[in-house]
Design brief:
By secondary structure, chain A is mainly α. Helices cover 68% and strands 0% of the residues of chain A. Chain A has one domain. In chain A, helix 3 packs antiparallel against helix 4. In chain B, 38% of the residues lie in helices and 14% in strands. The chains are: A mainly alpha, B alpha/beta.
Chain lengths: 113, 435
Protein backbone atom coordinates (compact mmCIF):
# COMPACT_ATOMS: atom_id res chain seq x y z
CA UNK A 1 0.00 0.00 0.00
CA UNK A 2 2.78 2.41 0.99
CA UNK A 3 4.79 1.51 -2.06
CA UNK A 4 1.73 2.08 -4.27
CA UNK A 5 1.25 5.53 -2.71
CA UNK A 6 4.89 6.34 -3.19
CA UNK A 7 4.64 5.53 -6.88
CA UNK A 8 1.21 7.11 -7.40
CA UNK A 9 1.95 10.54 -5.89
CA UNK A 10 4.93 11.36 -8.13
CA UNK A 11 3.04 9.99 -11.12
CA UNK A 12 0.04 12.27 -10.47
CA UNK A 13 2.35 15.21 -9.79
CA UNK A 14 4.20 14.60 -13.06
CA UNK A 15 0.95 14.39 -15.06
CA UNK A 16 -0.33 17.60 -13.41
CA UNK A 17 2.88 19.48 -14.10
CA UNK A 18 2.90 18.37 -17.73
CA UNK A 19 -0.77 19.36 -18.15
CA UNK A 20 -0.14 22.73 -16.55
CA UNK A 21 2.88 23.32 -18.76
CA UNK A 22 0.78 22.56 -21.85
CA UNK A 23 -1.94 25.00 -20.75
CA UNK A 24 0.40 27.84 -19.86
CA UNK A 25 3.00 27.36 -22.60
CA UNK A 26 3.41 30.38 -24.81
CA UNK A 27 3.47 29.98 -28.55
CA UNK A 28 6.72 28.80 -30.01
CA UNK A 29 8.86 31.76 -31.12
CA UNK A 30 9.21 32.12 -34.85
CA UNK A 31 12.71 32.00 -36.37
CA UNK A 32 12.91 35.80 -36.87
CA UNK A 33 11.91 36.27 -33.21
CA UNK A 34 14.49 33.82 -31.92
CA UNK A 35 17.34 35.53 -33.79
CA UNK A 36 20.10 36.84 -31.48
CA UNK A 37 19.91 40.61 -30.93
CA UNK A 38 22.75 42.76 -32.20
CA UNK A 39 20.93 45.93 -33.16
CA UNK A 40 19.88 44.74 -36.61
CA UNK A 41 23.09 42.89 -37.43
CA UNK A 42 23.65 39.17 -37.80
CA UNK A 43 26.09 36.43 -36.82
CA UNK A 44 28.59 35.47 -39.48
CA UNK A 45 30.13 32.49 -37.67
CA UNK A 46 28.53 29.68 -35.72
CA UNK A 47 27.57 30.43 -32.13
CA UNK A 48 29.20 27.18 -30.89
CA UNK A 49 32.45 28.58 -29.61
CA UNK A 50 34.72 28.26 -26.60
CA UNK A 51 34.79 31.12 -24.14
CA UNK A 52 37.58 31.88 -21.71
CA UNK A 53 36.13 31.33 -18.23
CA UNK A 54 38.05 34.13 -16.57
CA UNK A 55 37.29 33.06 -12.99
CA UNK A 56 38.71 29.58 -13.66
CA UNK A 57 42.07 29.95 -11.77
CA UNK A 58 40.29 31.53 -8.82
CA UNK A 59 37.72 28.70 -8.75
CA UNK A 60 40.53 26.14 -8.88
CA UNK A 61 42.29 27.77 -5.92
CA UNK A 62 39.05 27.82 -3.93
CA UNK A 63 38.62 24.08 -4.44
CA UNK A 64 42.26 23.45 -3.46
CA UNK A 65 41.87 25.31 -0.17
CA UNK A 66 38.54 23.69 0.56
CA UNK A 67 40.28 20.31 0.29
CA UNK A 68 42.91 21.57 2.71
CA UNK A 69 40.20 22.36 5.25
CA UNK A 70 38.78 18.87 4.75
CA UNK A 71 42.12 17.34 5.74
CA UNK A 72 42.22 19.45 8.87
CA UNK A 73 39.11 17.90 10.48
CA UNK A 74 40.50 14.31 10.77
CA UNK A 75 43.89 15.82 11.61
CA UNK A 76 42.37 17.52 14.66
CA UNK A 77 41.38 14.08 15.97
CA UNK A 78 44.79 12.57 15.23
CA UNK A 79 46.51 15.55 16.86
CA UNK A 80 44.98 14.67 20.23
CA UNK A 81 46.60 11.23 20.05
CA UNK A 82 49.88 12.05 18.31
CA UNK A 83 50.67 15.51 19.71
CA UNK A 84 53.64 17.53 18.40
CA UNK A 85 54.45 15.06 15.60
CA UNK A 86 51.04 15.64 13.98
CA UNK A 87 51.46 19.39 14.42
CA UNK A 88 54.76 19.32 12.52
CA UNK A 89 53.28 17.28 9.71
CA UNK A 90 50.40 19.70 9.34
CA UNK A 91 52.86 22.60 9.50
CA UNK A 92 54.80 21.13 6.55
CA UNK A 93 51.59 20.59 4.60
CA UNK A 94 50.45 24.19 5.19
CA UNK A 95 53.89 25.56 4.28
CA UNK A 96 53.78 23.80 0.90
CA UNK A 97 50.28 25.22 0.34
CA UNK A 98 51.40 28.70 1.39
CA UNK A 99 54.20 28.54 -1.18
CA UNK A 100 51.49 27.74 -3.71
CA UNK A 101 49.59 30.87 -2.67
CA UNK A 102 52.69 33.04 -2.99
CA UNK A 103 53.33 31.63 -6.47
CA UNK A 104 49.68 32.18 -7.51
CA UNK A 105 49.83 35.71 -6.14
CA UNK A 106 52.96 36.44 -8.16
CA UNK A 107 51.27 35.10 -11.29
CA UNK A 108 48.34 37.50 -10.77
CA UNK A 109 45.67 34.88 -10.06
CA UNK A 110 43.98 37.08 -7.46
CA UNK A 111 43.73 40.00 -9.85
CA UNK A 112 40.16 39.97 -11.14
CA UNK A 113 39.93 40.22 -14.93
CA UNK B 1 -12.99 38.47 -15.89
CA UNK B 2 -9.52 37.58 -14.74
CA UNK B 3 -8.11 38.26 -18.18
CA UNK B 4 -9.67 41.72 -18.37
CA UNK B 5 -8.32 42.48 -14.87
CA UNK B 6 -4.83 41.53 -16.04
CA UNK B 7 -5.28 43.65 -19.15
CA UNK B 8 -6.36 46.65 -17.09
CA UNK B 9 -3.42 46.25 -14.74
CA UNK B 10 -1.03 45.83 -17.66
CA UNK B 11 -2.44 48.95 -19.33
CA UNK B 12 -1.57 50.95 -16.19
CA UNK B 13 2.05 49.80 -16.17
CA UNK B 14 4.87 51.64 -17.95
CA UNK B 15 5.01 51.03 -21.68
CA UNK B 16 8.32 49.42 -22.67
CA UNK B 17 9.54 51.12 -25.85
CA UNK B 18 12.50 50.38 -28.09
CA UNK B 19 13.63 53.37 -30.14
CA UNK B 20 15.29 52.87 -33.53
CA UNK B 21 16.87 56.18 -34.48
CA UNK B 22 17.16 57.32 -38.07
CA UNK B 23 18.52 60.53 -39.53
CA UNK B 24 17.63 64.08 -38.46
CA UNK B 25 18.15 64.82 -34.79
CA UNK B 26 16.81 61.64 -33.27
CA UNK B 27 18.31 62.16 -29.79
CA UNK B 28 15.87 64.94 -28.91
CA UNK B 29 12.96 62.51 -29.13
CA UNK B 30 14.71 59.85 -27.07
CA UNK B 31 15.57 62.41 -24.41
CA UNK B 32 11.95 63.53 -24.29
CA UNK B 33 10.72 59.94 -23.89
CA UNK B 34 13.25 59.32 -21.06
CA UNK B 35 11.59 62.07 -19.06
CA UNK B 36 8.01 61.04 -19.75
CA UNK B 37 6.23 59.16 -17.02
CA UNK B 38 4.79 55.69 -17.76
CA UNK B 39 7.14 55.20 -20.70
CA UNK B 40 10.20 53.06 -20.21
CA UNK B 41 12.95 53.05 -22.80
CA UNK B 42 14.46 49.58 -23.02
CA UNK B 43 17.78 48.56 -24.52
CA UNK B 44 16.65 45.52 -26.53
CA UNK B 45 13.55 44.83 -28.63
CA UNK B 46 12.95 41.65 -26.62
CA UNK B 47 11.89 43.76 -23.63
CA UNK B 48 9.73 46.15 -25.63
CA UNK B 49 6.15 46.11 -26.75
CA UNK B 50 6.34 49.10 -29.05
CA UNK B 51 8.93 49.98 -31.68
CA UNK B 52 9.31 53.72 -32.20
CA UNK B 53 11.17 54.70 -35.35
CA UNK B 54 12.43 58.29 -35.20
CA UNK B 55 13.78 60.19 -38.18
CA UNK B 56 14.23 58.81 -41.67
CA UNK B 57 15.62 55.29 -42.10
CA UNK B 58 17.80 54.88 -45.21
CA UNK B 59 16.55 52.20 -47.59
CA UNK B 60 19.74 50.13 -47.19
CA UNK B 61 19.08 49.81 -43.44
CA UNK B 62 15.43 48.84 -43.74
CA UNK B 63 16.29 45.13 -43.57
CA UNK B 64 18.06 45.68 -40.24
CA UNK B 65 14.95 47.47 -39.02
CA UNK B 66 12.84 44.50 -40.11
CA UNK B 67 15.10 42.21 -38.02
CA UNK B 68 14.58 44.46 -34.97
CA UNK B 69 10.83 44.59 -35.61
CA UNK B 70 10.51 40.80 -35.63
CA UNK B 71 12.40 40.48 -32.34
CA UNK B 72 9.67 42.28 -30.41
CA UNK B 73 7.39 39.84 -28.60
CA UNK B 74 3.65 39.81 -29.39
CA UNK B 75 1.51 41.90 -29.10
CA UNK B 76 3.57 44.57 -30.79
CA UNK B 77 3.19 47.71 -32.89
CA UNK B 78 5.39 50.24 -34.68
CA UNK B 79 5.09 54.04 -34.51
CA UNK B 80 6.91 56.28 -37.00
CA UNK B 81 7.86 59.77 -35.93
CA UNK B 82 9.78 62.40 -37.87
CA UNK B 83 10.18 60.36 -41.04
CA UNK B 84 8.23 58.41 -43.63
CA UNK B 85 7.92 54.66 -43.16
CA UNK B 86 10.29 52.85 -45.48
CA UNK B 87 8.00 50.76 -47.62
CA UNK B 88 10.60 48.08 -48.20
CA UNK B 89 10.43 47.50 -44.46
CA UNK B 90 6.67 47.19 -44.43
CA UNK B 91 7.00 44.67 -47.29
CA UNK B 92 4.19 44.03 -49.70
CA UNK B 93 2.07 42.50 -46.94
CA UNK B 94 0.39 45.70 -45.76
CA UNK B 95 0.58 49.47 -46.03
CA UNK B 96 1.18 51.49 -42.85
CA UNK B 97 -2.07 52.36 -41.16
CA UNK B 98 -2.54 56.12 -40.57
CA UNK B 99 -2.39 55.75 -36.79
CA UNK B 100 1.21 54.48 -36.99
CA UNK B 101 2.42 57.85 -38.28
CA UNK B 102 2.97 60.46 -35.58
CA UNK B 103 3.11 63.96 -37.02
CA UNK B 104 4.93 65.74 -34.20
CA UNK B 105 7.22 64.65 -31.39
CA UNK B 106 4.95 66.29 -28.79
CA UNK B 107 2.14 63.85 -29.67
CA UNK B 108 4.38 60.82 -29.38
CA UNK B 109 4.05 60.01 -25.62
CA UNK B 110 0.24 60.13 -25.82
CA UNK B 111 0.18 58.00 -28.96
CA UNK B 112 2.48 55.45 -27.36
CA UNK B 113 0.15 55.06 -24.39
CA UNK B 114 -2.94 54.84 -26.60
CA UNK B 115 -1.37 52.25 -28.88
CA UNK B 116 -0.35 50.10 -25.91
CA UNK B 117 -3.91 50.25 -24.57
CA UNK B 118 -5.33 49.24 -27.95
CA UNK B 119 -2.89 46.34 -28.20
CA UNK B 120 -3.73 45.04 -24.74
CA UNK B 121 -7.48 45.38 -25.18
CA UNK B 122 -7.33 43.56 -28.51
CA UNK B 123 -8.64 46.57 -30.48
CA UNK B 124 -5.42 46.61 -32.45
CA UNK B 125 -3.89 43.47 -33.97
CA UNK B 126 -0.31 42.58 -33.19
CA UNK B 127 1.96 43.12 -36.20
CA UNK B 128 3.08 39.92 -37.95
CA UNK B 129 6.71 39.04 -38.72
CA UNK B 130 8.20 40.79 -41.74
CA UNK B 131 10.85 38.16 -42.36
CA UNK B 132 9.88 34.63 -43.42
CA UNK B 133 9.57 32.05 -40.64
CA UNK B 134 12.43 29.80 -41.70
CA UNK B 135 15.93 29.24 -40.27
CA UNK B 136 18.27 32.10 -41.25
CA UNK B 137 21.09 29.60 -41.75
CA UNK B 138 19.50 26.25 -42.61
CA UNK B 139 21.06 22.85 -41.89
CA UNK B 140 23.72 21.98 -44.45
CA UNK B 141 25.62 19.18 -42.72
CA UNK B 142 25.59 15.52 -43.64
CA UNK B 143 23.88 13.32 -41.12
CA UNK B 144 21.83 14.26 -38.05
CA UNK B 145 24.77 15.79 -36.22
CA UNK B 146 26.84 17.06 -39.11
CA UNK B 147 29.18 14.14 -38.60
CA UNK B 148 29.42 13.53 -42.34
CA UNK B 149 30.64 17.07 -43.13
CA UNK B 150 34.12 18.10 -44.08
CA UNK B 151 37.01 18.48 -41.65
CA UNK B 152 37.12 18.01 -37.90
CA UNK B 153 34.26 20.41 -37.25
CA UNK B 154 31.78 18.69 -39.53
CA UNK B 155 31.76 21.34 -42.25
CA UNK B 156 29.06 24.00 -41.98
CA UNK B 157 26.21 22.27 -40.18
CA UNK B 158 24.03 25.38 -39.93
CA UNK B 159 25.20 27.22 -43.00
CA UNK B 160 27.72 29.24 -40.99
CA UNK B 161 31.39 28.37 -40.55
CA UNK B 162 32.43 27.19 -37.08
CA UNK B 163 34.17 29.78 -34.95
CA UNK B 164 37.95 29.38 -35.34
CA UNK B 165 40.80 30.17 -32.96
CA UNK B 166 42.47 33.54 -33.15
CA UNK B 167 45.33 35.12 -31.20
CA UNK B 168 44.25 36.51 -27.83
CA UNK B 169 45.06 40.12 -26.99
CA UNK B 170 44.78 39.74 -23.22
CA UNK B 171 46.55 36.72 -21.76
CA UNK B 172 47.64 34.68 -24.77
CA UNK B 173 45.09 31.87 -24.35
CA UNK B 174 43.85 31.26 -27.89
CA UNK B 175 40.14 30.53 -28.07
CA UNK B 176 37.38 30.79 -30.66
CA UNK B 177 36.56 34.22 -32.02
CA UNK B 178 32.89 35.03 -32.54
CA UNK B 179 32.20 37.14 -35.62
CA UNK B 180 29.05 39.20 -36.05
CA UNK B 181 27.83 42.53 -37.25
CA UNK B 182 26.38 45.05 -34.83
CA UNK B 183 24.11 48.05 -35.50
CA UNK B 184 22.73 50.25 -36.96
CA UNK B 185 20.13 50.21 -34.15
CA UNK B 186 22.24 49.00 -31.23
CA UNK B 187 21.51 51.16 -28.18
CA UNK B 188 25.15 51.66 -27.17
CA UNK B 189 26.34 52.85 -30.58
CA UNK B 190 25.69 56.18 -32.27
CA UNK B 191 22.59 55.89 -34.47
CA UNK B 192 23.37 54.47 -37.89
CA UNK B 193 26.81 53.06 -37.03
CA UNK B 194 27.22 49.53 -38.34
CA UNK B 195 30.34 47.50 -37.63
CA UNK B 196 31.65 44.04 -38.25
CA UNK B 197 33.08 42.81 -34.95
CA UNK B 198 35.22 39.89 -33.88
CA UNK B 199 34.98 39.03 -30.17
CA UNK B 200 37.02 36.66 -28.07
CA UNK B 201 35.01 36.26 -24.90
CA UNK B 202 34.21 39.88 -24.13
CA UNK B 203 37.38 41.30 -25.68
CA UNK B 204 37.17 43.00 -29.08
CA UNK B 205 39.68 41.57 -31.54
CA UNK B 206 38.54 43.44 -34.63
CA UNK B 207 36.22 46.39 -35.30
CA UNK B 208 35.51 47.16 -38.94
CA UNK B 209 33.14 50.02 -39.73
CA UNK B 210 30.53 48.95 -42.29
CA UNK B 211 28.60 52.20 -42.37
CA UNK B 212 29.29 55.47 -40.50
CA UNK B 213 26.81 56.93 -38.01
CA UNK B 214 24.19 59.40 -39.19
CA UNK B 215 25.45 62.96 -38.96
CA UNK B 216 24.03 64.87 -36.01
CA UNK B 217 22.39 68.22 -36.57
CA UNK B 218 24.16 71.11 -34.90
CA UNK B 219 21.91 73.59 -33.11
CA UNK B 220 21.28 76.38 -35.62
CA UNK B 221 22.61 79.03 -33.22
CA UNK B 222 26.21 77.88 -33.87
CA UNK B 223 25.79 78.10 -37.65
CA UNK B 224 24.16 81.54 -37.33
CA UNK B 225 27.14 82.90 -35.37
CA UNK B 226 29.32 82.31 -38.46
CA UNK B 227 27.34 84.81 -40.49
CA UNK B 228 25.61 87.30 -38.23
CA UNK B 229 25.69 88.82 -34.77
CA UNK B 230 24.39 86.26 -32.27
CA UNK B 231 24.04 86.68 -28.50
CA UNK B 232 27.06 84.96 -26.98
CA UNK B 233 24.91 83.85 -24.05
CA UNK B 234 22.76 81.79 -26.45
CA UNK B 235 25.80 79.94 -27.77
CA UNK B 236 26.95 79.07 -24.27
CA UNK B 237 23.49 77.98 -23.14
CA UNK B 238 23.25 75.61 -26.10
CA UNK B 239 26.72 74.30 -25.26
CA UNK B 240 25.51 73.51 -21.73
CA UNK B 241 22.46 71.76 -23.16
CA UNK B 242 24.36 69.55 -25.63
CA UNK B 243 27.01 68.63 -23.03
CA UNK B 244 24.37 67.75 -20.43
CA UNK B 245 22.53 65.57 -22.96
CA UNK B 246 25.75 63.70 -23.75
CA UNK B 247 26.47 63.22 -20.04
CA UNK B 248 22.91 61.93 -19.49
CA UNK B 249 23.47 59.24 -22.13
CA UNK B 250 26.66 58.17 -20.39
CA UNK B 251 24.81 57.97 -17.06
CA UNK B 252 22.06 55.83 -18.62
CA UNK B 253 24.72 53.48 -20.00
CA UNK B 254 26.24 53.15 -16.51
CA UNK B 255 22.82 52.28 -15.07
CA UNK B 256 22.36 55.66 -13.35
CA UNK B 257 18.87 56.14 -14.80
CA UNK B 258 17.61 58.58 -12.16
CA UNK B 259 20.65 60.81 -12.54
CA UNK B 260 20.22 60.68 -16.33
CA UNK B 261 16.60 61.85 -16.08
CA UNK B 262 17.64 64.55 -13.60
CA UNK B 263 20.28 65.76 -16.07
CA UNK B 264 17.87 65.78 -18.99
CA UNK B 265 15.37 67.76 -16.92
CA UNK B 266 18.08 70.37 -16.39
CA UNK B 267 18.97 70.39 -20.11
CA UNK B 268 15.43 70.40 -21.58
CA UNK B 269 14.16 73.91 -20.73
CA UNK B 270 17.56 75.62 -21.18
CA UNK B 271 16.79 77.52 -24.42
CA UNK B 272 14.15 79.52 -22.49
CA UNK B 273 16.23 80.07 -19.35
CA UNK B 274 16.39 83.58 -17.85
CA UNK B 275 19.41 85.37 -16.40
CA UNK B 276 18.06 84.75 -12.92
CA UNK B 277 17.76 81.03 -13.66
CA UNK B 278 21.46 80.66 -14.53
CA UNK B 279 22.59 81.08 -10.92
CA UNK B 280 20.23 78.32 -9.79
CA UNK B 281 21.37 76.13 -12.70
CA UNK B 282 25.01 76.49 -11.65
CA UNK B 283 24.09 75.22 -8.17
CA UNK B 284 22.00 72.34 -9.54
CA UNK B 285 24.82 71.21 -11.84
CA UNK B 286 27.25 71.40 -8.90
CA UNK B 287 24.95 69.27 -6.78
CA UNK B 288 24.52 66.77 -9.63
CA UNK B 289 28.28 66.52 -10.04
CA UNK B 290 28.71 65.88 -6.32
CA UNK B 291 26.03 63.16 -6.44
CA UNK B 292 27.75 61.52 -9.42
CA UNK B 293 31.13 61.64 -7.74
CA UNK B 294 29.69 59.71 -4.80
CA UNK B 295 28.16 57.17 -7.19
CA UNK B 296 31.54 56.55 -8.84
CA UNK B 297 30.50 57.97 -12.22
CA UNK B 298 33.92 59.55 -12.78
CA UNK B 299 36.04 56.83 -11.16
CA UNK B 300 34.36 54.21 -13.38
CA UNK B 301 35.97 55.70 -16.49
CA UNK B 302 39.52 55.83 -15.13
CA UNK B 303 42.06 54.27 -17.49
CA UNK B 304 39.44 53.40 -20.10
CA UNK B 305 39.48 54.58 -23.71
CA UNK B 306 42.68 56.56 -23.48
CA UNK B 307 43.46 58.47 -26.70
CA UNK B 308 46.96 59.25 -27.89
CA UNK B 309 47.94 62.79 -28.88
CA UNK B 310 47.33 62.17 -32.59
CA UNK B 311 43.83 60.80 -32.05
CA UNK B 312 42.97 63.62 -29.63
CA UNK B 313 44.26 66.17 -32.11
CA UNK B 314 42.13 64.65 -34.87
CA UNK B 315 38.96 64.80 -32.78
CA UNK B 316 39.61 68.22 -31.27
CA UNK B 317 36.89 69.92 -29.21
CA UNK B 318 36.36 68.78 -25.62
CA UNK B 319 38.06 65.44 -26.43
CA UNK B 320 41.31 67.23 -27.26
CA UNK B 321 41.02 69.43 -24.18
CA UNK B 322 40.45 66.34 -22.02
CA UNK B 323 43.83 65.17 -23.34
CA UNK B 324 45.54 68.39 -22.24
CA UNK B 325 45.47 70.26 -25.58
CA UNK B 326 44.89 73.99 -25.20
CA UNK B 327 42.84 74.13 -28.41
CA UNK B 328 39.65 76.20 -28.37
CA UNK B 329 38.37 78.58 -31.05
CA UNK B 330 36.93 80.78 -28.30
CA UNK B 331 40.41 81.74 -27.12
CA UNK B 332 41.02 83.67 -30.40
CA UNK B 333 37.70 85.53 -30.26
CA UNK B 334 37.75 89.07 -28.82
CA UNK B 335 34.32 88.98 -27.11
CA UNK B 336 35.36 85.81 -25.27
CA UNK B 337 38.72 87.34 -24.32
CA UNK B 338 36.88 90.40 -22.97
CA UNK B 339 34.81 88.07 -20.76
CA UNK B 340 38.02 86.60 -19.33
CA UNK B 341 37.72 83.22 -21.06
CA UNK B 342 40.55 80.75 -20.41
CA UNK B 343 40.82 77.24 -21.82
CA UNK B 344 40.22 74.55 -19.19
CA UNK B 345 41.91 71.17 -19.67
CA UNK B 346 42.37 67.72 -18.15
CA UNK B 347 45.51 65.65 -18.55
CA UNK B 348 44.82 61.94 -19.01
CA UNK B 349 42.59 61.67 -22.08
CA UNK B 350 40.56 58.71 -20.79
CA UNK B 351 36.78 58.43 -20.27
CA UNK B 352 37.12 59.87 -16.76
CA UNK B 353 38.93 62.94 -18.11
CA UNK B 354 36.28 63.46 -20.77
CA UNK B 355 33.49 63.27 -18.18
CA UNK B 356 35.33 65.74 -15.94
CA UNK B 357 36.03 67.99 -18.93
CA UNK B 358 32.36 68.05 -19.93
CA UNK B 359 31.33 69.08 -16.41
CA UNK B 360 34.09 71.72 -16.27
CA UNK B 361 32.89 73.15 -19.60
CA UNK B 362 29.28 73.14 -18.41
CA UNK B 363 30.23 75.20 -15.34
CA UNK B 364 32.35 77.53 -17.46
CA UNK B 365 29.63 77.97 -20.09
CA UNK B 366 26.99 78.84 -17.46
CA UNK B 367 29.29 81.48 -15.97
CA UNK B 368 30.07 82.88 -19.43
CA UNK B 369 26.37 82.93 -20.37
CA UNK B 370 25.50 84.84 -17.20
CA UNK B 371 28.24 87.42 -17.78
CA UNK B 372 27.56 87.79 -21.51
CA UNK B 373 23.82 88.09 -20.86
CA UNK B 374 24.35 90.93 -18.39
CA UNK B 375 26.66 92.80 -20.78
CA UNK B 376 24.59 91.85 -23.88
CA UNK B 377 27.67 90.61 -25.76
CA UNK B 378 27.17 89.70 -29.42
CA UNK B 379 29.42 87.46 -31.48
CA UNK B 380 30.21 86.84 -35.14
CA UNK B 381 33.32 84.83 -35.80
CA UNK B 382 34.74 82.84 -38.68
CA UNK B 383 35.52 79.91 -36.37
CA UNK B 384 33.00 78.71 -33.82
CA UNK B 385 33.76 76.19 -31.09
CA UNK B 386 30.68 73.96 -31.08
CA UNK B 387 30.07 71.27 -28.42
CA UNK B 388 31.37 68.63 -30.87
CA UNK B 389 34.33 70.43 -32.42
CA UNK B 390 35.33 73.37 -34.55
CA UNK B 391 32.93 74.81 -37.15
CA UNK B 392 33.97 77.13 -39.98
CA UNK B 393 32.12 78.37 -43.06
CA UNK B 394 33.83 75.67 -45.10
CA UNK B 395 33.95 72.78 -42.68
CA UNK B 396 31.66 71.16 -40.14
CA UNK B 397 32.96 68.73 -37.46
CA UNK B 398 33.92 65.51 -39.26
CA UNK B 399 32.94 61.89 -38.80
CA UNK B 400 35.52 59.97 -36.74
CA UNK B 401 34.13 56.44 -36.92
CA UNK B 402 37.19 55.20 -38.87
CA UNK B 403 39.30 55.87 -35.78
CA UNK B 404 37.35 53.23 -33.85
CA UNK B 405 39.05 50.52 -35.91
CA UNK B 406 42.35 51.19 -34.15
CA UNK B 407 40.93 52.42 -30.84
CA UNK B 408 38.50 49.67 -29.81
CA UNK B 409 40.44 46.38 -30.38
CA UNK B 410 41.77 45.11 -27.05
CA UNK B 411 38.93 46.63 -25.02
CA UNK B 412 36.23 44.69 -23.22
CA UNK B 413 32.73 45.27 -24.62
CA UNK B 414 31.74 47.38 -21.61
CA UNK B 415 34.81 49.56 -21.99
CA UNK B 416 34.17 49.99 -25.71
CA UNK B 417 30.60 51.19 -25.09
CA UNK B 418 31.76 53.64 -22.40
CA UNK B 419 34.42 54.95 -24.78
CA UNK B 420 31.95 55.33 -27.64
CA UNK B 421 29.48 57.22 -25.45
CA UNK B 422 32.20 59.67 -24.42
CA UNK B 423 33.26 60.57 -27.97
CA UNK B 424 31.47 62.66 -30.60
CA UNK B 425 31.98 60.02 -33.27
CA UNK B 426 29.33 61.19 -35.72
CA UNK B 427 29.95 64.13 -38.04
CA UNK B 428 27.73 67.19 -37.96
CA UNK B 429 25.33 68.69 -40.46
CA UNK B 430 24.39 72.32 -40.67
CA UNK B 431 20.69 71.80 -40.91
CA UNK B 432 18.64 72.51 -37.84
CA UNK B 433 17.14 69.04 -37.75
CA UNK B 434 13.48 68.29 -37.97
CA UNK B 435 12.55 70.28 -34.88
Amino acid sequence: MDLANLLLIPLIAAVLILALEKCLRRNHSSYPQARPYSGGGDLSSHAWCRFHVRYYPMALLLIAFEMEMMFMYPWAVVYVAEGIKALMEMGMFLTILALGIVYAWREGVFRWQ
Amino acid sequence: MAVSLWQRLAARASVPVFVASGKDEPDEIQDMLWQTGRIKLVFTPRHASLLVVTGQIPVEQSQSLAIIHDQLPHPRATLWCGGQPCFEFIAAKRAPSPQTLVASAEDLPQRIKETQKQLLSGKRQSEPDLNPDRPPAPWQGKGDHGQGGEGMMGGKPYGRPMAMMEADLRDGLMLDALEFSVGPFYHGLPAGLMASVSLQGDVILKWQVESPPFPTALPSVFVRALHQDTPLADLEIWRVRVHLQRLARMMALDGLDCAAVRTLRLAGPLPCITQAGLGALQKQVGSLEKHLRKRGFFALGAGIGELDAQQANLMGGYVGRACGMQEDARSTSKPYQALGFTVSCQDKGDVQSRRLQLFAEVHQAIALAAKAGREEVMLTHEEIETPVGRLTKRQAPKDHSEMLQSLLPGMEWREALMTLASLPVAGATREGGWQ
